[in-house]
């Protein structure tokens, strides 16, 4: 089973949405993935993240904000993906077999629901491409460039 960890600063928005997306895409494609998310510090899962993911049929209601110490076997992941620059800078070193990826997304916190949806939709495209690549055995996208105009509004 492939293990995936998604890291962000607070594990309250982007990493939670990414966890839900990766888990959903893996289930749709019949791919056996173990997916976790964590933050460099724990806070709470933000209500707009729960709301915009519910619009896609993905339930984050039971999710909690976690740190690496809350994740099972935190040093044994096949992929570690950071979704914000702060997490990328503070991400611990992983063993050589772990593939580190950085997919930086705009922080939608404080933005309108339209901003949350725009970030969710960008993440949806990127993480679907990630899961499709894993499932097909092709090269996983190394990075993600944020689309101009996606800043928080």
From TrEMBL:
Q: InterPro entries attached here? A: Ptyr_pPase, Ptyr_pPase_sf
Q: What is the lineage of its organism?
A: Bacteria, Thermotogati, Deinococcota, Deinococci, Deinococcales
Species assigned in the record = Deinococcus peraridilitoris (strain DSM 19664 / LMG 22246 / CIP 109416 / KR-200)
List residues of the Phosphotyrosine protein phosphatase I domain: 2-133
Q: Name one GO biological process term.
A: response to arsenic-containing substance
Query: Which Pfam families does the record cross-reference, listed alphabetically?
Result: LMWPc
Supply the alphabetized keyword list.
Answer: Arsenical resistance
Question: What are the transmembrane regions?
Answer: none
Question: Record keywords: Oxidoreductase included?
Answer: no
Name-wise, this protein is: Protein-tyrosine-phosphatase
* Organism superkingdom: Bacteria
User: Is Thylakoid among this UniProt entry's keywords?
Assistant: no
